[in-house]
Fold each of these.
Amino acid sequence: MEKPISVTRSNFNDWMVPVFAPANFIPVRGEGSRIWDQENKEYIDFAGGIAVNALGHAHPVAVNALTEQAKKLWHVGNGYTNEPVLRLAKQLTENTFADKVFFCNSGAEANEAALKLARKVGLDSGVAGKSGIVAFKNAFHGRTLFTVSAGGQPKYSQDFAPLPNGINHVAFNDLDAAKAVINEQTCAVIVEPIQGEGGVIPADIEFLKGLRALCDEFGALLIFDEVQTGVGRTGSLYAYMNTGVIPDVLTTAKALGGGFPVGAMLTTDKFALHFSVGTHGTTYGGNPLASAVAGAVFEFINTPEVLEGVKHRHQYFLDALNTLNAEHQIFEEIRGQGLLIGCVLQAEYAGKAKDITTWAGEEGLLALIAGPDVVRFTPSLIIPEQDIDEGIARLKRALAKLAK
Ligand SMILES: *Cc1c(COP(=O)(O)O)cnc(C)c1O
């Protein structure tokens, strides 16, 4: 085999469209919750590829599913169905409220499908102008024009005007504000059970119950964006299961493929049947390779042991973070569920989250931000306790740079 082309971090600036500012090292290999860079420096992974690598890196269950399927059939296109996608659809429908699944490749595409479905259901209702979408400030739903417009952070959408219209944003966790804008013309309400990118902010249960009631009253679809909270992240298979509220549509991606790109929109028969042949589609969605990996990852995660393990690790993480914080008083609040944890910086450290993740990298730790003031951790759902300990020790060294 020919020697691979040698590349460095500075080549990113040479050849890549500059929408990212990646760390100054290049990861090349991973195992469990540890990765190594080009210099063979080791890192503990508290980022999990942004809540994606649910089983860590190179987990044998995922590797076997991928390599076995790779020898059989990669792709056929949706003129043919395939066995892995049907198995995955069975798993998802048997274990959730849903009867039907639409597969795609990302969270944005899953939300795009959900919003299009809601518009179609609204149209079919015969109620004039039933196309309004209610969404929340600070929300994140993806980067397609429709989903970025549904998201509640104008800085991500305003440069791309004209935007799709009919989307109304109100304050998150403010039921009265939602009540004021939900009416007969509303076709959907889209909400994250925990705002992830927006700062790891859990929705109040009463807020979600109130949205459910309003959607029922006005015949609007309640869409739960579980792209970040899904597939065991909170210690339940899906976060809605912790709330007593059942959505009409649920979107899932990130952890679903454990690192292989895949997304899905789940819904009930009642709504799914508003889509018919040709109303929506995809080339790659439900591809055998993605579906085989997702099926294996889903089966592994959807067990009492793994889900209980997430809850246990949550407490373990929180205890360690609280101990650290008792000493250093850096975080004003530590919040989240399961292994979606946000550490809100004290006012005096406002805006320093990004610096902290940079220093964490120097100390051998991958961590995330969720806005300028929140350090976020979304590690593997099966991260060993000793890796949590070691990661926290490295975090402590990184935080020491904050004082300076
Ligand atoms: C990451 C995320 C998305 C977008 O997913 P992509 O796979 O990046 O398109 C949508 N919604 C939520 C809640 C997310 O966390």
Amino acid sequence: MGKGFFISKAVGIAAIIVGAGALATIIALSVVYSQEKAKNNDNVLPTDGGTTSKPPVTTTAPSNEPWDKYRLPKSLVPDHYNVTLWPRLKQNLTTGLFIFTGQSTVEFVCAEETDLILIHSNKLNYTKRENNHLASLTSLGGVKAPSIKSSWLQQVTQYLVLQLDGKLMKDHRYHLHTDFTGELADDLGGFYRSEYMEDGVKKVVATTQMQPTDARKAFPCFDEPAMKAIFHITLIHDLGTVALSNGHDVQKTVFQPTEKMSTYLLAFIVSDFSFINNTIDGVLIRIFARTPAIAAGQGDYALNKTGPILKFFEKYYNSSYPLPKSDQIALPDFNAGAMENWGLITYRETALLYDETFSSNSNKQRIATIIAHELAHMWFGNLVTLRWWNDLWLNEGFASYVEYLGAHEAEPEWNVKDLIVLSDVHRVFAVDALASSHPLSSKEEDIQKPAQISELFDAISYSKGASVLRMLSDFLTEKVFTMGLRTYLAEFAFGNAGYTDLWSHLQMAVDATGTDIPETVSNIMNTWVLQMGFPVVTVNTSTGIISQKHFLLDPDSEVTTPSIYKCVDGLSYFPPLRTINLYVFIISGSDWVLANINVVGYYRVNYDQGNWERLLGVLSTNHVAIPVINRAQLVDDAFNLARAKIISTVLALRTTKYLNKEREYMPWESAVGNLDFFYLMFDRSEVYGPMQDYLRNQVTPLFTHYKSLTDNWKNVPVGHMDQYNQVNAISLACRTGLRECQNLTNQWFNQWMETKLNPIHPNLRSTVYCNAIAAGGAKEWEFAWSQFKNASIAIEADKLRYALACTKQPWLLNRYLEYTLDPNMIRKQDATSTIVYIANNVIGQSLAWDFVRARWSYIFTQYGGGSFSFSNLVNGVTERFSTEYELQQLKQFKEDNAEVGFGSGTLAVDQSIERTIANIKWIAENKQNVLDWFKAEEKP
Ligand SMILES: *[C@@H]1O[C@H](CO)[C@@H](O)[C@H](O)[C@H]1NC(C)=O
Ligand SMILES: *[C@@H]1O[C@H](CO)[C@@H](O)[C@H](O)[C@H]1NC(C)=O
Ligand SMILES: *[C@@H]1O[C@H](CO)[C@@H](O)[C@H](O)[C@H]1NC(C)=O
Ligand SMILES: *[C@@H]1O[C@H](CO)[C@@H](O)[C@H](O)[C@H]1NC(C)=O
Ligand SMILES: *[C@@H]1O[C@H](CO)[C@@H](O)[C@H](O)[C@H]1NC(C)=O
Ligand SMILES: [Zn+2]
């Protein structure tokens, strides 16, 4: 899936309840649970919701039956499926439901004799077949299939279970037939529906999101990535959307059989969307979206870029695109950013549709990189699939690395490859520096339940995966890296592999080319993959000694996660020091030394005080002597080393003094990101005023620079990075209260309200809207809300949705919070991020926290089915926490909701507690110093 949005799934109790009687089930279960606890028994939870037929044998002991295990037995191997699905895009007014019906036949081979068939199935109702069973079985090749003895649905583990009265025979083939009905719900998972308005008419789309474990919600299937098969899909759908008078005029679309593929990559969609198309070297490329969006040319950019990116990856992988067509579709409701279904990639509208009048350069970059990310998966992930979800990091980390290569191909002027440092390396450093982090690789047996799988779609898998693969590609050289990659793809095409298979192929390439590396690929990579965290490398220029240790944001925190990594030579925690030359690329000036050039290595760097002083000297006299990425890195390292108490906070603040001369985006972005932490910690304290004064002085020259560069804000800067930094200039100038900036944004916004013609350039809209709404009252808010509701492109709606959270009026914020749980106001896909926006606002912080606390069990049960990212939510609303009182509230929250659970946010709750403790300590130790420093800087 595309990064940036992580899905979360129904988990724990939420997964047990189905349909009606939900509330009663929750209550019943919690009663059972508390009784169990009271008896101080072993905490056995009922393993079945009890809403459908039960297994024939009832037992109270923890059952160890095959159907209680989350992993399929190895006895049956699917060959192909014939599936017909009929989604009804009209609500049944009697039941109030949208449904789909389906028939499926799967042909499987028996690999080990067995009298049991387990096949995944979730939330499907079956029509009874022969002898009242939920399925029927036939055999091929003349022998008679055993008859079905009993059949039932095992809800917790999501199986259709069939017990047979005789054995299936090894190497024989069988057909399993089913007829079923499912709900076409608006839950963003499995086969679901998306709704939108067009010309005043509500339209319904039936679409899918299978990854990771929701194909079983569309039809019964062996829903594991290694159970590859061929799928013959038939869809039944209405002809056109016009109301017809005499019943349904239906049409049947039969699709060519797929290649051999995993269930999680399937997709089927019924809509009345339009498309534009192209053909490149025989591959048909189509972009689908709502008809008005296509008519307005919003798919053109994606169509223009898809061909070149596809060609780039064919070359990169040395493998032609495996399918005859590549469809990409923008959906009004979609939970992740995008999903790499093989040949039918699904996107949020904001991730695919571009419109020059509405889209910023950042929107455009996102489209180019997400397309590249998803197309990269067509080979890496789809053609060759990881055997099990514990290796997800390799799939997502790889796509998150090469997405920059593909985007660079599409937009060579942008220097987009540099941005991996800000968007992935820095982003994940923040998480991976916590004691509650986790290694990239997990043990297969630790990843079993759907919620455990969902939890893997996190910053570690995406961004750390991308960071260490970039490092690997760099030290092997791209030539050797792609050589290994190509033979890996060739060997495992249409099959499955594990990450060690990639290491073997890279090793073969190393051996074939005689590349000199100090250890095997596998030994080197194990240190990064099998243990969590990353090192801080200290370069002591006075002694010449280079040393390293595990970098922990809170040096007092205790790492309890067991490491899978066994240190080979007992020398050190991270890469053996004798291989350090691989990672510590050093350049130096006359008297200073700088390590980790372009931040290729996945580690932070510290120096002796003397070298730090000399680096600060270079920054203030001739900052361009240091590469721009490293200027960003010096700031980021210094601030984080200070948070970990390795250097003083004052030293970190001093890295920002040269910024009044800096014009480049990356160092500013890095500084703004780190200063955000200061805002979070101090925007409710007396440090705030002096900090604002200092930063206003620092940013004013940048603001003035852009004012003249753009001829008093009339033009757009030429460079991509310059366009980004213009946004920083305005955001920070307005945030720090530069009057000229505030007047500018208010004046633009007022002009818009009065003339109804928007004069604001798309690049600047988010920040201008936000500042104007913050400065204004109900009138500005209501205007923006009406613009939000009427926006014709999601990219514009998203900017407004963000800015609406900037108001300083508590009543408006509270009302906005209420809207987030009303899908008519805020789409479910946007609920989490809207709440987090509100929490980012200093006025909204406590309102959002109270809201989430008060509604937790409601949110969890109502939105548990995929539309809420619980970890983003928990991290987002607790980010500012830095007092004892807030820590107590957080612990209380954890305790109060222990029974409801936190699902995919479980780890985030612990991370938030850890972060709050660290913040409390940090403030106690730093507040006075920081205040004194800002005050001293204010004085001329
Ligand atoms: C609506 O559902 C009811 C109950 O399942 C069913 O009897 C009826 O035929 C359905 N109506 C339509 C129009 O499909
Ligand atoms: C699926 O359909 C194909 C083509 O009609 C047919 O050859 C095959 O036998 C069918 N397989 C099953 C399992 O029904
Ligand atoms: C499936 O069956 C349950 C229990 O009878 C019912 O509540 C639910 O509405 C059914 N779902 C569909 C899609 O028919
Ligand atoms: C685009 O699609 C239309 C209609 O399906 C077709 O006639 C045309 O040849 C296609 N164009 C390209 C360039 O593939
Ligand atoms: C797409 O490419 C065409 C032809 O090169 C060009 O005229 C058009 O401006 C491009 N559209 C976008 C949105 O990039
Ligand atoms: Zn992905």
